[in-house]
Write a structure and sequence with these properties.
Length: 471
């Protein structure tokens, strides 16, 4: 079975968040199950694409309204990521260093989708399954089925995965002419609230829709940024499949980004060396428990609460806090301004730093995730794998993956997104940390939990198989 994953991000080529991690790992596991997955992404301009060995395998052109774009399709030769990678190069439009946040993102994403379709519409390039990820690729299932240009693809099954329903990529119907001619009776398939909504179009047009955790699927039926009723109506073709993690990349025994590698038997010394590096570099004290946060500094992640959580906890308890992230400028400024007051117990690193994130998973004692919305969340699974205890709000995938220690589980959970709740959880964590025997026993236990992709990769294969007609 040839599976084509269509995405904007793919680790390690271009990563902004969890989407990259999923698209960079799931195909690897699908390959290990004996299938033939490949990934197609835009040709981003970055260090990876500058260093990589690529070969041009196809040239074509697409029409975005009145503008024609020439595109080239490259295949990644090395490094070998464990699956085939294709990149679509469109000069000056797709080859940018920043993945998102351009004023012409709508044009960029539609051009990318048109080039993907142009290429796979050629019979020898046609996959058995087209698996689209998030709104940037949400028009593909519609265009495969209803346009008169890509008729070869009408019978090819499409799967659409919602990684985050907060972002829907809406555009005005003034731009309808970007979409090649289609059966006008089907215009409603593009529409949500009088706008073209690529996320809604993906949900309506794909043969199957998945989300990244079973609990998020349930939550979306009551809160999906306006798409609740659509998800309820389409419920029969929707399924929640829990994300996994790439246990090869995320392995404390071999992770090249750590100061000291460790395994179960060397957990104490290994983690101590990594914690020492963090404390030395960020002026923190190694004696105190270290609480960390990694992620986008946005309200969705509960990052707006961090400043108050910090003030309350640092004033009343003996802990260290380290934050890594970027996002909302107001939140960033507030977090930076607190640094002076708690100079030897708190540090915030504004920015994106892959290596530092690995060091934090390996050296912090607890990871804070006070999320309001968390479709799956990967951080808690990385934390568990590295022996860091997660403190999470029970929402989305966090509810599916973390069980409270009070219920025989291995994390610390709270139900509300309130400063008080998080601070109370921090107090529970401190009590746990003070009993070093129980704390280390718990660390050993969490490192053994299997959150790899093995089971979920098979669930996706079963889903694809349910769509493919026997030949
Ligand atoms: P998101 O909603 O942002 O996609 P996920 O939990 O699904 O959240 O995935 C987040 C991924 O991005 C994890 O691999 C996490 O370690 C990484 N990450 C987030 N922010 C940063 C940052 N500032 N620096 C390094 N890695 C980060």
């Amino acid at each position: 079975m040839n599976i084509l994953h269509v995405s904007i991000e793919c680790y390690p080529i271009a990563k902004v968040g969890g989407l990259a991690d999923v698209v960079g790992a799931l195909p690897k596991y699908q390959k290990s199950l004996g299938y033939n997955p490949s990934v197609i992404i835009p040709f981003h301009q970055n260090q990876f694409t500058r260093d990589a060995e690529l070969t041009k395998i196809h040239k074509g052109s697409i029409q975005l309204g009145e503008v024609s774009h020439l595109y080239s399709l490259y295949k990644l030769i090395s490094p070998d990521l464990g699956f085939t990678v294709y990149m679509i190069h469109v000069p000056r439009l797709l080859d940018r260093s920043k993945v998102y946040g351009h004023s012409d993102d709508t044009e960029r994403f539609i051009t990318f989708q048109l080039a993907v379709l142009d290429w796979i519409n050629i019979p020898e390039n046609m996959p058995d399954i087209v698996h689209c990820h998030d709104h940037h690729t949400g028009l593909i299932p519609f265009m495969m089925t209803y346009t008169t240009t890509y008729t070869n693809l009408q019978l090819t099954p499409s799967v659409f995965t919602i990684h985050n329903a907060q972002y829907q990529g809406q555009l005005s119907f003034n731009k309808l002419y970007y979409i090649p001619s289609f059966d006008r009776k089907k215009i409603g398939m593009l529409d949500w609230d009088h706008r073209i909504n690529p996320l809604a179009a993906g949900i309506k047009s794909a043969w199957k829709v998945t989300t990244v955790s079973p609990n998020y699927m349930k939550e979306l039926q009551v809160n999906a940024n306006g798409l609740e009723s659509l998800l309820r109506n389409e419920g029969k073709k929707c399924v929640g499949i829990l994300n996994g993690i790439d246990t090869e990349t995320w392995n404390p025994e071999t992770d090249p980004m750590l100061v000291k590698n460790y395994k179960l038997s060397t957990l104490v010394s290994g983690r101590k060396a990594n914690k020492k590096w963090l404390c030395d570099n960020f002026d923190l004290s190694i004696e105190k428990p270290l609480f960390a946060f990694i992620g986008r500094l946005v309200t969705e992640k509960g990052a707006d609460l961090l400043a108050d959580i910090l003030e309350e906890s640092l004033s009343n308890t003996g802990i260290n806090i380290l934050i890594l992230g970027s996002g909302n400028q107001e939140i960033e400024e507030k977090l930076k301004s607190l640094r002076e007051r708690f100079i030897d117990r708190y540090h915030v690193h504004i920015g994106y730093d892959e290596q530092l994130s690995h060091m934090i998973y390996a050296g912090a004692d607890f990871l804070l995730m006070p999320s309001r919305v968390e479709p799956c969340g990967l951080n808690q699974m990385y934390a568990l794998r590295y022996g860091t205890i997660p403190i999470v709000r029970r929402t989305g995938g966090l509810k599916d993956t973390v069980i409270d220690i009070g219920d025989g589980g291995f994390g610390i959970c709270h139900d509300q997104t309130m400063v008080w709740d998080v601070c109370y959880s921090i107090k529970r964590a401190i009590a746990l940390y003070q009993d070093q025997v129980a704390y280390k026993k718990l660390q050993r236990r969490i490192m053994k939990i299997d959150h790899s992709w093995h089971r979920s990769a098979q669930e996706y294969i079963d889903l694809y198989n349910s769509l493919i007609q026997p030949k």
